[in-house]
Amino acid sequence: xxxxxxLLIEDSPTDAVLIKGLLSRVPRAHxxxxxxxxxxxxxxxxADGGFDVILSxxxxxxxxxxxxxxxxxxxxxxxPVVVLTGTDDLSLAxxxxxxxxxxxxxxxxxxxxxxxxxxRYAIQxxxxxxxxxxxxxxxxxxxxxxxAAQIMDLDDNLRERLLFPQRTLAVTLPFRRDDYLExxxxxxxxxxxxxTMGPTKGGIRYHEDVxxxxxxxxxMWMTWKCALMRLPFGGAKGGVRIDPTVxxxxxxxxxxxxxxxxxxxxxxxDKDIPAPDMGTNERVMAWLMDxxxxxxxxxxxxxxxxxxxxxxxxxxxxxxxxxxLVYLIEAAAEHLELNLRGATAVVQGxxxxxxxxxxxxxxxxxxxxxxxxVSGAIYNPRGLSVSALLSHVRDNRVLEGFPDGEPISNAxxxxxxxxxxxxxxxxxxxxxxxxxxIQCKIVAEGxxxxxxxxxDEILQDRGVFVLPDVVGNAGGVTVSYFEWVQGTQNYTxxxxxINSRLHTILVDAFRRTLDRASRHNLDVxxxxxxxxxxxxxxxKLSRGLFP
Length: 547
Ligand code: NAD
Fold this sequence. Notes:
Blueprint: E1 4-9, H1 13-24, E2 31-36, H2 39-48, E3 53-56, H3 65-76, E4 81-85, H4 90-98, E5 103-106, H5 112-130, H6 136-152, H7 156-163, E6 167-176, E7 183-192, E8 200-207, H8 212-228, E9 234-241, H9 249-263, E10 272-276, H10 282-296, H11 320-336, E11 344-348, H12 352-363, E12 367-373, E13 376-379, H13 386-396, E14 406-408, H14 410-414, E15 420-423, E16 442-444, H15 453-461, E17 465-467, H16 469-472, H17 475-489, H18 495-520, H19 524-543
Parallel strand pairs: 1-2, 1-3, 3-4, 4-5, 8-9, 8-10, 11-12, 11-15, 15-16, 16-17
Antiparallel strand pairs: 6-7, 7-9, 12-13, 13-14
Helix pairs in contact: 1-5, 2-3, 4-6, 6-8, 6-19, 8-19, 9-10, 11-12, 11-17, 11-18, 17-18, 18-19
Bound molecules: nicotinamide-adenine-dinucleotide.
């Protein structure tokens, strides 16, 4: 067995001997440990290279606390860093993990096997991140999870189990162009993060950036979202790496049918139920349902949600994410004692989520002063007319050219002063580069992963209320659940019933989240994640482990 090369940065010679001793007695593992008693020599040894993992104390003669970790981490590059310290401090632990530590271990609380496992896992995770899983979004989802896990002191076995998805399928699929000469081959994915809670559930995204890592991040967020809403689903997600806006309707249909065929074994009404996400809509869901039904020989409406009402879709599903987001903006405004009548909003993205959120905000008397899409942003300080925007997009596909407003860039739009900022397009929009210049009271996340960890912290320090994605955009999956229930019962609910149940579920989850945040002095995102992770953890522990 090849030994794992460990750099131990530890100022106490007694502790160093103890740690080496612990590692040398671990069965079926071999560690080759070199030590440094100071940070400066440790950094030099890192620069010389050759280590698989770094195990570092935080209190050293020439550096203390989080700063020690930050300096080791900055020098380490691709080499994973595990912290082993005598300081049993929850907030320091959370900050260290958030800053990129693979684990925060406390001396005296960890035995040799635990330590060896932490080192081995740190190496495995880093290897995986650098291979097919590599994606900033998956990194963000994992860091958010690890931070929450650290704060809630999640069982180490569960932490490792939940950090990567349970099942993934990567396919390549060909489809014919309309000229019937050219065949395009593209990558597609379906990822099921967790099979413990019931069937898995999650959208299908068509976008040119789709990758296994991105889909895995989205699947993980679906798990926490479903658990937080107390829906009987685990998280899943799928996607095809293609720009759907350049495809004709026939090409889109052929692509969808072939993709469905490739993932057929994985999906089913009791197994895994897709829904729309970015770049897909109810028409795509109808093709997916038809292809699945053709293959199994009878009509199976419950294999997808977000399908047209005439095929067994639910009233209110199409607008559910935007509607739910606005229910939650109302609840957040009430919490902050902010009067929404006459308040101003800026909405990034004018697709399913963004356009519906804009519509419902206008109904509440909020003045929407700017909206954007892939073609750019439109600004009008007197307020934009939502019906005029919708009819412009119906005729022109994009917002560009909308007459009643000034064209500005997407980046400028995010920094406009307003009460509510709704990111409802892509991930990674509010970052450490622009977070200081965001000038709103509430960031209401319609999109998945629009705010980076660094930006989250800046917004929190500046007193901006962040309504995190796992709560903010959960209206979609909640009404998808209603659609699935109606389908399995062959019964239809009215729009009023749907909306009132949606309101109850979302506001209840929001209140539980706020309550947890204030009881444990947490930011709202971490409180929401812990609320979801806790439920998953107890379900996993109740089911036991097979075999
Ligand atoms: P969509 O495809 O209907 O719309 C996406 C919008 O974003 C379009 O208006 C597009 O032009 C715009 N856009 C693309 N690139 C942009 C850019 N660089 N700058 C500004 N705008 C840009 O997608 P959707 O279903 O509305 O999804 C949007 C977000 O909401 C995604 O993050 C998705 O995961 C999330 N979400 C959607 C649902 C749902 O039910 N559809 C549910 C939960 C979360």
